[in-house]
Design goal:
The protein is α+β, with helices and mostly antiparallel strands. The protein has 8 helices and 7 strands, in the order H-H-H-E-E-H-H-H-H-E-E-E-E-E-H. A 5-stranded antiparallel β-sheet has the order 6-5-4-3-7. The protein has a two-stranded antiparallel sheet with strand order 1-2. The longest helix has 17 residues.
Length: 225
């Protein structure tokens, strides 16, 4: 867990007015008590009103509330534009997540900033490429679940090749098309596939991570060439 996440979690665990011992916090966060002492000291220096009582632990007053998220105007616009891009160019799963994220932001930003969410005047539009969007969803799921894909792949002439099985590693957007970086088991090497040329992608069995066939190795090879 990142330190910032740990500090936030400590604040959440101490809310409500009840005492929580350093040992309980340490066990919950899987760190040492000494780390908890340092974290509490840092939170106190930052103005978080943590109260400590020997033998009982730490607590926050019942009246303590985490201040609302504060964004600059350009930060809100960046979030909105990013969500619009995901809706236009990614699959329905990520599009729904983008809409949900914006709804959560609307729920926590101060009222004075709500209008800035709707006033962002930068848009991203998608024309055509419906096949790529349909394929994106399957490919994205296969990457997340680390499962092989069996695909038919069409060349520039539109004629699909024989079935091939790949290990999907990452998706890249090139301004107009998505490409899939993958380990091709037919060629026993890395290959890139345009997502809009993939036909009938089917998820099959899981695969284990192998350093020689990983995305990091693929990127290292691309940087070298």
């Amino acid at each position: 867990m990142r330190r910032a996440d740990r500090l936030f979690t400590i604040v959440q665990l101490l809310r409500g007015g009840r005492h929580v011992t350093a040992r309980t916090l340490a066990d919950r966060l899987e760190v040492s008590e000494r780390t908890i002492y340092r974290d509490v000291d840092e939170l106190t220096l930052c103005g978080v009103p943590i109260e400590g009582e020997p033998g009982r632990g730490y607590r926050l007053p019942k009246t303590f509330e985490i201040p609302p998220l504060m964004f600059e105007r350009h930060e809100i616009e960046a979030l909105v534009v990013g969500a619009r891009f995901v809706e236009a160019w990614c699959g329905p799963g990520l599009a729904a997540s983008a809409r949900s994220a914006l709804a959560r932001i609307r729920g926590v930003v101060p009222a004075g900033l709500l209008s800035q969410i709707d006033d962002a005047r930068v848009y991203t539009l998608r024309f055509g490429q419906s096949l790529a969007i349909d394929n994106f969803e399957v490919v994205h799921q296969a990457i997340g679940q680390q499962r092989r894909l069996t695909i038919d792949y069409a060349g520039e002439d539109g004629i699909p090749t024989l079935d091939r099985t790949v290990r999907p590693l990452g998706l890249y957007f090139w301004g107009k098309v998505w490409t899939l970086a993958a380990w091709c088991e037919l060629r026993d090497d890395f290959r890139s596939f345009r997502v809009d040329r993939i036909r009938q992608p089917r998820m099959t069995e899981p695969f284990a991570t192998e350093p020689a066939k990983s995305l990091e190795t693929f990127l290292a090879r691309m940087r070298a060439t």
